[in-house]
């Protein structure tokens, strides 16, 4: 499950749970098969009804990007992304339209999204400037970055996400850990060889003495556009298996990984929120994170911050030094665990749902 899918699902459940009296939640979906529709309906039992568009996701995306008005429900429209009918419409049919912008990668790192997807996102963001009543972002960092690129005036609202209640330990953690071949001690990260994620530099860090030969497990696919995590590790001189891509993992496996990791490292050069870092904080896993503004905002002092750019040393050296501080240095792991859990409690989906309803009430 990718981040946007998880966000949309959790927010929808929160909106259903916090709906004010006389307010209903209706699902609006692009065309899909009956089996998929039934599965989605089962995930949101509190939704009053489901409206299915006649067009596929791709067709709707093209139509809305080109300003073609395609019916997509009436009343208050809240989109968990920029995928929304941002077109000139009769406001009696759609009184409010609120969309969500999760990051500014479409401008800063278009290769991370793919250039066509990035171009679509930029186009829709400018349509939001014309037609959206408000734009939700997950952090003040994104709000500031977006303001430099799109004139949204006073319509931006910061409403963050939260940890997923479904990320819980399996019933048989020891058996599952054995099946996953988890080392006794390891460092955990998430990402790919997309340069934005900083995973390449983290692999270089794993080859340095300060990493103490700890295995590095990475949630994510081995290959990204011809570049492989395993090949990068080999070129860094690391023995086979020292760095292991795990691919996609289940919620229970993620919980197991976070609960057993010596540290979770978030080396990203750019983020909109940092959901996996928040999950690590919730488990009391010591967090090492870059000084990307969204991650600094998220951690709020509950992690070990590493500067991305410094002429005095390489980023890999600084990441390794931060891991060293957690493993054998002067970092107080128990204090970080307490700070992390406390920080994670500041975020809840119920609060996010209530704030969305409040936003629509203000509009």
UniProtKB/TrEMBL annotation:
Keywords tagged on the record: Glycosyltransferase, Transferase
GO biological process: lipopolysaccharide biosynthetic process
UniProt cross-references to InterPro entries, sorted A to Z: Glyco_trans_1, Glyco_trans_4-like_N
Domain Glycosyltransferase subfamily 4-like N-terminal: 2-161
Pfam families: Glyco_transf_4 (PF13439), Glycos_transf_1 (PF00534)
A GO MF label: glycosyltransferase activity
Protein name: Glycosyltransferase family 1 protein
Superkingdom of origin: Bacteria
Ranges for domain Glycosyl transferase family: 182-308
